[in-house]
Amino acid sequence: ELPPSEFMQVADSTWLVLSVVSNGREPPGCQATGVTKIARSVIAPLAEHHVSVLMLSTYQTDFILVRERDLPVVIHTLAGEFDIYREESGECVPVTCDDVSNGFLKPKPPASPTLHPVQSPQTRFCVLTVAPDTLPAIATMLIDVLFYSHSPSWDAATSSQDLDSITFFSFSLIEGYISIVMDAETQKRFPSDLLLTSSTGELWRMVRIGGQPLGFDECGIVAQIAEPLAAADISAYYISTFNFDHALVPEEGIAEVIQLLQQRQEGGR
């Protein structure tokens, strides 16, 4: 319904949302959350089969977006590990490989992935949620932060290789559930009694992936970050965008994360 505009670009693909629901089969002691929890079972296999994914972690759960045309490959890849359902008129209907066998392509030999640079600004972030009935009370502040707060220009944001801080604000409304990522300074502008966070109230640091716009075509970007973190059992929220990808990790673990990713880059040269 949005009118055509020279200021808006729309990707030519239609994307489908995969919601991964746990059935309690994780091994004992597995405490990792976010993208780390599904790195080995979902993200890595899709990357190996050349499926490009967009990742959206929220306060409540994690979503993986795949192109509609890649659905046959996705289902064949994941059917051995997961029970797969599609939603029809609000009901979950089982999907089998036979349902989508037409057009299935065997994976090509894996190509050497591009190793994208990573940056870790000093900014500290919060992952929050808001009760839907309290949203009107902060609506004006949300609009101000989203559309009117100062943010650096594109040239300024990309010219510095060592960012001390970064402007980042994410708001998602999915089936009535609200998830917000904001820096700790911005959080102070909101009424503290309306923003809900985990009982620990932990702060997060960001690893930003990419030195130039990543686009949507390249495969394996999420896997490059998620797999090392999964191996170290480090929780991470992950948000894909057109320009950069963003992984949020607990503040106390940022030094270990940077070391792991540096080792990944050195090993890939």
Element layout with pairings:
Blueprint: E1 15-19, H1 39-48, E2 53-57, E3 62-67, H2 71-78, E4 85-88, E5 91-94, E6 118-119, E7 124-128, H3 135-148, H4 154-159, E8 170-174, E9 177-183, H5 184-187, E10 204-209, H6 221-231, E11 237-240, E12 245-250, H7 254-267
Descriptive keywords:
about 270 residues; alpha+beta; 2 domains; 7 helices; arginine binding; identical protein binding; cytoplasm; Cytosolic arginine sensor for mTORC1 subunit 1; ACT-like_dom_sf
| Second rung of CATH, namely the architecture of the largest domain | 2-Layer Sandwich
Supply the number of helical segments: 7
Q: Quote the distance from N terminus to C terminus.
A: 46 Å
How much of the polypeptide forms β-strand, as a percent range?
Answer: 15-25%
- Give the H and E element order: EHEEHEEEEHHEEHEHEEH
Number of structural units classed as domains? 2
GO cellular component, one term: cytosol
Organism: Regulus satrapa (Golden-crowned kinglet)
GO molecular function: arginine binding; identical protein binding
Family: Belongs to the GATS family.
